[in-house]
Amino acid sequence: MKSKLALVQMRCSTDADENTRRAAEFVVEAGKQGAQIVCLPEMYRTPYFCQKEDAAIFDLAETIPGPSTRILGEAAKKAGVTVIAPLFEKRALGLYHNTAVLLNPKGENQGMYRKMHIPDDPGFYEKFYFTPGDLGFKAFDTNAGRIGVLICWDQWYPEAARLTALRGATTLFYPTAIGWHPYEKDRYGAEQRDAWRTVQRGHAIANGTYVAAVNRVGHEKTEPHEAGIEFWGTSFVSDPFGVVIAEASTNKEEILVVETDTNRIEEVRRGWPFLRDRRVDVFGELTQRFVD
User: Which of 126, 152, 220, 230 is catalytic?
Assistant: First the structure.
């Protein structure tokens, strides 16, 4: 089965309505280019606000259903595509998640995934805003095959990729907001981005799946006097052998349309049968924080 994926690499302004309008336009354009499933970057509707802790920012969250699901649902229906829409979800009063909603080609909500791993690093203060996901790792049947959705920080955890692949996902989507602290870029930038690409290519190889990493671009600051974050783009698709078959630039808005083929998965898994050879009888310690 051959399918076409579209990765939308975009800039995110302070105007949430404008970001949503532009995202909907990207979805329709991706459909015109033959895409069957379109993925937006993490929290596409706003700048990456987790650079600081500010309770007023909770006002940016939206319910599901809400403005994004309505507008992007209309775009999905118009284009005849499935849309992965990553949102700042207001689940209840005072309860928020970093969530990806799956909208089918009829514009309907097919399901959602809530980010499981929540970072807390300088400039990435996500634990202040997001409750860890409680829906588990999931896979969804779509017009582009069975797919899994994980979000940004999840991409560093092989367990997340494995459990999603074990649910039958043939493509793992990672909507993302990741970049450089400008003062670190010259010294660490190349190796940081290489580590990010390498770990996800590793998930593709270890699980025999395609991986689609979708990042934003632009230099965003929450305060004028701060250095901010320079998002490194580089959205890419890796095949099941870890080969990067398409990659976007570091600094431009792009729609990356890529064809995948489940025959390639079958070919790779026959030669590298990692799922067959897993010793599931000895993995019990993985449920511990650390094995003393």
Answer: 152
115 is known as an active-site residue? yes
Model pTM greater than 0.85?
A: yes
Contact 275, 18 (CB under 8 A): no
* pLDDT band for position 224 (cuts 50, 70, 90): confident
Place of tokens 């995934």: 113
pLDDT digits (tens, 9 = 90+) for 144-161: 999 999 999 999 999 999
Inter-residue contact 38 to 83 (CB < 8 Å): yes
Cβ partners under 8 Å of residue 262, min gap 6: 1, 2, 145, 170
Tokens 């290489």 label which residue?
A: 194
285 is catalytic: no
Is the separation of the CB atoms in 210 and 75 below 8 Å?
no
Say whether 42 is catalytic.
yes
Q: Catalytic: which of 4, 90, 115, 138? A: 115
Structure tokens at 199: 């770990």
Within 10 angstroms of residue 72's Cβ, the number of other Cβ atoms is 26
- Tell me the pLDDT band of 116, cut-offs 50, 70 and 90: very high
Asked if residue 86 lies in contact with residue 43, where contact means CB atoms within 8 angstroms, the answer is yes
pLDDT over 90 at 223, yes or no: no
> How far is residue 213's CA from residue 219's CA, in Å, rounded to a whole number?
19
All structural domains of the chain, each given as residue ranges with its CATH number in brackets, are 2-278 (3.60.110.10)
How far, in Å, are 70, 151, 203, 242 from residue 236 at the CA level? 28, 15, 14, 11
